[in-house]
Design a protein that fits this description.
This protein is of the alpha/beta class. It has 2 domains: about 325 residues, TIM Barrel (Alpha-Beta Barrel); about 90 residues, 2-Layer Sandwich (Alpha-Beta Plaits), CATH 3.30.70. About 35% of the residues lie in helices and about 20% in strands. The protein is built from 17 helices and 21 strands. An 8-stranded parallel barrel has the order 3-4-8-9-10-11-16-17, surrounded by 7 helices. Strand 3, helix 1 and strand 4 form a beta-alpha-beta unit. The relative contact order is 0.11. Bound molecules: flavin mononucleotide. Flavin mononucleotide binds next to strand 7, strand 15, strand 17 and helix 10.
C-alpha cells in the first residue's frame, strides 16, 4: 500500500482527499459520514454573517446535465455539467460552535480533520467568523474568495468579488491572519484573468496556501423553451472544467515556487486526483460528484488513488507532487527546438478513397486526394498530429523528418511539382526518399 499521508499547512492528513465546502458539509451527520468514509478532511460549508447568502442556500437550485445539454435522469457520467445556485451555510456561524467542537473531535479521533470556511460581510465580519472557528478548536481555515454568487446579489460584497482584486484579497487575508493563530488558506476564483497575482498577494499577506479554484459562473439555455436554465447565470462545473483548473494549479505552482495548493474544480475519480497532484496540488477537494453519487462513492476514489500509486510505483504523494508541472514547457518557443515530424499514411489499413477524413482535417494542405489515394506533401506537413487523431483506422503514423530530408533541396520543391502534376505515385513507400520518387 502506498503512503497517502501528506502535510498541508502544517497539519498531517492521512490522505490528500478533502471533501470540499459544499452541501454535504452543511450537515453534522453527513460530515460524520465523510469521516467514516475515510476522507482526509472535510471543509465545512462556508460560515457567514451575510443573511442573503444564508437565505440563498435555502433557495438552492440544481440543473445537472449530460454532454448533450439534457437533464441526466439518474445517469451521471464523467461528462456531467453541474449548473447550480446556492449560498453559504444557512445556519448562523455562532450556532455552529457546538457542532464544530464535537465534529472536530470526531474527525481527529479517526485521523481526519475538520477545516473551517469563512465568508464575511465586512473585514471585521471575516475576523469575527475566523476567531469563532479558531475558538471552537479548528486548526485550519479556508477563506472563500471564490464563490461566484455574491456578484449576483445586490448589496452583498464577497466571494469572487474579493478574489478578483489582489489588494482587497490581501487586506482581508492580512486582517484574518493577524487575528488568528491558526493557518489560513485562500480559495481563489477562476472568474478572472489573474489568479496568480491574487495568490501572490494573499501569500504575502500571510496565507499558508491557496485553493485553485472555486467554480466559474455560467449561462445555460434550454433550447426547447428558449429560456435560461435556472433563470439566468449560476455556478457551473464538472470534469470538463478540470483542464482550466489545472492550468491555474500549474501556473501558481510554477510561478510561486511550489507554494502549497489545494486543487479543486473538476474531480470525478481518482485519475483526476492524480492529475491535480501531478500538477502541484498537495491536497484535492472533491465536491459536486459526492452530491450526485453520495458519500459512499468516496472510499472508491481513495482506494483508486492508492491502487494507482501502487501500480505505477509511486511510494508516496510527494513523489507525484508537481511532476507534470516540472516537465511542462514554460515558453512555447521551446517547441521550436524539438525535431521536425511529418505524418505518413499506412497503405495497408487506410480506407481511402472511401474515407477522406485526414484530408478534410489537414489544414496545411499536406494531405490530398491524388490518383485514388492519400497523397502526402511532406514539405507542407508541420507535424501537428491532428490527422493521427481524426483517422478512425489508426492508419497514420508520425516520423521524425530526418535532417537529410529537410535539407535536401528536392524535398521542398520536387514533391510539390509532382503533386501539382498529379504524379505522386508512391506516396506510402517511405523506404525511399522523395527525391528518388521524383527520379
Ligand atoms: C452546490 C454547491 C455549493 C457550494 N458551496 C460552496 C461553499 O459554501 N463554499 C465554498 O467555498 N465552495 C462552495 N462550492 C464550491 C465547491 O467547494 C468546489 O470548490 C467546487 O464545487 C468544485 O469542485 P467539484 O468539481 O469537485 O465540485 C459549492 C459548489 C456547489 C456545486
Amino acid at each position: 500500500m502506498a503512503n497517502l499521508e501528506i502535510d498541508f499547512c502544517g497539519l498531517k492528513f492521512k490522505n490528500p482527499v478533502l471533501v470540499a465546502s459544499i452541501e454535504p458539509t452543511n450537515s453534522p451527520e453527513v460530515i460524520r459520514e465523510c469521516v467514516d468514509a475515510g476522507a482526509g478532511g472535510m471543509i465545512i460549508k462556508t460560515l457567514t454573517d451575510i443573511e442573503d447568502m444564508a437565505r440563498l442556500t435555502q433557495n438552492s437550485k440544481y440543473a445537472i446535465l449530460n454532454e448533450k445539454n439534457e437533464p441526466i435522469n439518474g445517469k451521471v457520467n464523467k461528462n456531467f455539467v453541474f449548473f447550480s445556485r446556492s449560498g453559504y451555510s444557512g445556519t448562523h456561524y455562532k450556532e455552529w460552535v457546538p457542532y464544530l467542537k464535537e465534529l472536530r473531535q470526531y474527525a481527529e479521533d479517526r485521523g481526519s480533520h475538520l477545516i473551517g470556511s469563512a465568508g464575511g460581510k465586512s473585514v471585521q465580519g471575516w475576523v469575527d467568523i475566523c476567531r469563532t472557528i479558531e475558538d471552537a478548536g479548528i486548526k485550519l481555515i479556508e477563506l472563500n474568495f471564490g464563490c461566484p454568487h455574491p456578484a449576483m446579489m445586490p448589496g452583498v460584497h464577497g466571494g469572487s468579488m474579493i478574489g478578483q482584486d489582489p489588494d482587497v484579497a490581501a487586506e482581508v487575508t492580512r486582517a484574518v491572519t493577524e487575528a488568528v493563530g491558526i493557518p489560513v488558506f485562500v480559495k481563489l476564483t477562476p472568474d478572472q484573468s489573474k489568479p496568480v497575482e491574487v495568490a501572490r498577494a494573499v501569500m504575502q499577506a500571510g496565507a499558508a496556501a491557496v485553493t485553485a479554484t472555486n467554480r466559474h459562473t455560467g449561462f445555460v439555455v434550454d433550447i426547447e423553451t428558449g429560456t435560461p436554465r435556472l433563470g439566468g447565470p449560476a455556478g457551473i462545473g464538472g470534469t470538463w472544467v478540470k483542464p482550466l483548473s489545472l492550468r491555474w494549479v500549474n501556473k501558481i505552482f510554477t510561478e510561486l515556487g511550489g507554494v502549497p495548493i489545494s486543487g479543486s474544480n473538476g474531480i470525478y475519480d481518482h485519475k483526476d486526483i492524480v492529475e491535480f497532484i501531478m500538477t502541484g496540488a498537495r491536497t484535492v477537494q472533491i465536491g459536486s460528484i459526492l452530491m450526485l453519487k453520495g458519500i459512499k462513492y468516496l472510499p472508491k476514489v481513495i482506494r483508486g488513488l492508492d491502487e494507482f500509486m501502487d501500480s505505477h510505483g509511486y511510494a508516496d504523494i510527494e513523489s507525484m507532487l508537481g511532476i507534470a508541472s516540472r516537465r511542462s514547457v514554460v515558453d512555447y518557443s521551446e517547441q521550436f527546438k524539438k525535431p521536425r515530424m511529418h505524418s505518413e499514411v499506412k497503405a495497408e489499413t487506410c480506407k481511402n478513397p472511401k474515407c477522406t477524413i485526414c484530408i478534410q482535417t489537414c489544414f496545411y494542405d499536406a494531405l490530398a486526394q491524388v490518383d485514388g489515394r492519400v497523397g502526402m506533401l511532406h514539405q507542407n506537413c508541420i507535424g501537428c498530429e491532428l490527422c493521427t487523431q481524426t483517422c478512425p483506422f489508426d492508419s497514420i503514423a508520425m516520423h521524425t523528418t530526418s535532417e537529410q530530408l529537410r535539407q535536401t533541396a528536392e524535398y521542398f520543391s520536387i514533391p510539390e511539382k509532382i503533386f501539382q502534376e498529379g504524379k505522386f505515385e508512391k506516396p506510402f513507400d517511405r523506404g525511399i526518399s522523395l527525391s528518388r520518387v521524383a527520379d
